[in-house]
Design a protein that fits this description.
single chain, about 170 residues, alpha+beta, Alpha-Beta Plaits, 6-stranded antiparallel sheet, two-stranded antiparallel ribbon
């Protein structure tokens, strides 16, 4: 049985566009997994200790992988693309690539290694905006509200704009 998941992509170090494209390509090459839709790419201002602007987007995937296997596969892609993991996991630092499972079917999961839906999803404009492109009417399994309504209610003041590649 195929499962539908939404994966957030972020990058703010090095050649951001190359990092982004490589991540999408590698996700599509995962066994029993296909990227079925891509959002536009957005540029968002840095937050926390990060200093460079991020490129962010969301891909919809259909996969036979269970959530834990999908997570492990995404972490392997991050490592292969040069992500360095520190001893302490910090959510506010620069990254060459960051891949997060945002939603997996309508499931809620709360293990030590995986929390679904992504716990910060409702607070991040840079995630809600591209996700609302792909699935505006999709109901958040905990909030019970559509993604587009969550975007309208989001209090995140961060600037997020459509990314236009330099010519």
């Amino acid at each position: 049985m195929s499962h539908k998941a939404y994966v957030g992509i972020g990058t703010n170090l090095g050649d951001r566009m190359a990092n982004y494209r490589a991540a999408v390509s590698r996700i599509d090459e995962l066994p029993e997994t296909r990227v079925t839709a891509l959002s536009s790419i957005y540029e968002s201002e840095p937050h926390g200790r990060a200093r460079n602007w991020f490129l962010n987007g969301v891909v919809e995937v259909h996969t036979e992988l269970d959530p834990q296997r999908l997570l492990k596969s995404l972490q392997k892609i991050e490592t292969e693309l040069g992500r360095k993991r520190g001893a302490k996991k910090s959510k506010t630092v620069s990254r060459k690539i960051d891949l997060d499972i945002l939603l997996y079917n309508g499931e809620t999961i709360g293990t030590r290694t995986l929390k679904l839906p992504h716990p910060e999803l409702v607070n991040r404009r840079f995630v809600l905006l591209p996700l609302s492109e792909l699935a505006p009417a999709l109901l958040h399994p905990v909030a019970g509200t559509s993604i587009s309504a969550l975007l309208a209610l989001c209090k995140d003041p961060s600037r997020v704009m459509l990314f236009k590649e330099p010519k």
